[in-house]
Design a protein that fits this description.
By secondary structure, the chain is mainly alpha-helical. Helix 7 runs parallel beside helix 10, helix 10 runs antiparallel to helix 11 and helix 15 packs across helix 17.
């Protein structure tokens, strides 16, 4: 027989559940507020004690209401937070299984794709997916088997909140760890994010790709072009992450393709000015400035990419002499000098000049060829201050650089 104390507790539970069942939207919202305030951080045994060993009876009501109302967004953030209290509690495996058995993962993923749902609600959905993913390998596999990677990646690209995007990165990072069956799927999903028009999404995808690459080992064929295309960004934080990933990728089988791609970017085929303006140029935040206001907008991506490539080549060469020697065989000196002759974009001139200065200083054969091609006066200016050279040269010297025929690869 149950004691008087136990009977009173059961009576309170039944009363609470009856209040929930009979309540309207406003009253349920108030019940959720009280539940969240009083039960945040409790363990599963503490929740059972609170609900007289009947906590699952309230959880099933929450999941049922979630499935009925998530498309309308009614108190969605509070419902998700309340479910999160159950799933995140210590020793909560039973609650987790109960939530998953009623299609919890699919509901959370569907919330991410609904346009009418508020960003805060979607953020709570991501946090619940984090809890599920962190519960073990089989739960990560369940998310991936539910087409989760695609839904999560698409949400990262579309999200307007950097705070929410960072929560998505945490989730993707979790999915790539301890998930051998689907880690390649996550890796490919991250690559598809690189052309995103969201700079934050690009930055976070590049950061997570570095982790994924070290776990997976093998590279995907598309990663070279995707990473090189990111170099046309106007956002220095994205450029930095792209170069950091490139530094990692040269240790894999795509090294030769990467180096060749970087050298090719130094001599771009500039598009016609009449071509449509790329979507990225609609961003109001211009991080890098044009040399002249007359430069057509269609030229900008190619010139930003040119400057970033020159910078990346310098980073790689300074870090590894073998890579520097390989790039000499790819006629990097000729291409750097050509970039120095791009009078339409001062940052291309500056970055190419700084990188060429390193090659000249380290390789005597390069110094010999460059001096012969530049002539005494231009070479003297170059060696005295490579960084500011573009501000001191005249149109004739610009033409000498742009039309140079240097071929150090033969000497190498």
């Amino acid at each position: 027989m149950t004691s008087i104390k136990e009977q009173a507790a059961i009576s309170r539970l039944l009363s609470f559940l009856q209040d929930w069942d009979n309540a309207g939207k406003a009253a349920r919202s108030h019940i959720l507020d009280n539940f969240i305030e009083n039960n945040q951080g409790k363990t599963a045994p503490e929740l059972e004690q609170e609900f007289s060993q009947g906590a699952s009876l309230f959880l099933v009501r929450l999941t049922t209401w979630l499935r009925l109302t998530y498309m309308t967004g009614s108190s969605l953030e509070k419902v998700l937070k309340s479910i999160g209290i159950f799933l995140a509690s210590v020793n909560s495996n039973r609650y987790l299984i109960e939530f998953l058995e009623v299609g919890g993962v699919l509901t959370l993923l569907e919330i991410l794709g609904l346009e009418k749902i508020k960003e805060e609600d979607k953020k709570e959905s991501i946090k619940l997916l984090q809890v599920i993913a962190n519960s073990g390998r089989k739960y990560k596999e369940l998310i991936c088997e539910s087409y989760g990677v695609r839904s999560i990646a698409e949400f990262l690209a579309k999200s307007k909140s950097e705070e929410t995007q960072e929560e998505v990165q945490v989730l993707l990072n979790s999915l790539v760890h301890g998930n051998p069956k689907y880690q390649n799927q996550v890796y490919k999903g991250l690559i598809t994010l690189l052309p995103s028009v969201s700079p934050k999404a690009q930055q976070l995808a590049l950061q997570t790709l570095r982790t994924a690459q070290s776990i997976i080992g093998a590279t995907h064929p598309s990663i070279v072009d995707c990473v090189l295309n990111v170099l046309c960004t106007m956002h220095l934080e994205v450029q930095y992450e792209a170069i950091e990933l490139i530094k990692d990728l040269v240790n894999y089988d795509v090294c030769e393709a990467l180096l060749k791609g970087l050298v090719d970017l130094l001599t771009p085929s500039v598009p016609e000015a009449s071509e449509p303006q790329p979507k990225i140029l609609s961003d109001s935040t211009v991080v890098l400035q044009l040399t002249t206001a007359r430069l057509p907008a269609a030229y900008l991506p190619a010139f930003l990419q040119q400057a970033a490539a020159a910078k990346a080549i310098g980073v790689l060469a300074r870090g590894n002499t073998s890579l520097a020697e390989e790039m000499l065989r790819l006629r990097v000196v000729h291409s750097l000098m050509a970039a120095m002759g791009n009078a339409e974009h001062s940052n291309s001139q500056r970055q190419a000049s700084l990188t060429l200065e390193y090659f000249v200083r380290i390789f005597p054969v390069v110094a010999e060829h460059v001096q012969r091609s530049m002539g005494e006066e231009l070479y003297r200016l170059f060696r005295s201050n490579a960084e500011d050279l573009h501000m001191k040269i005249d149109s004739v010297q610009v033409d000498i650089l742009a039309t140079n025929k240097v071929n150090v690869s033969r000497a190498v």
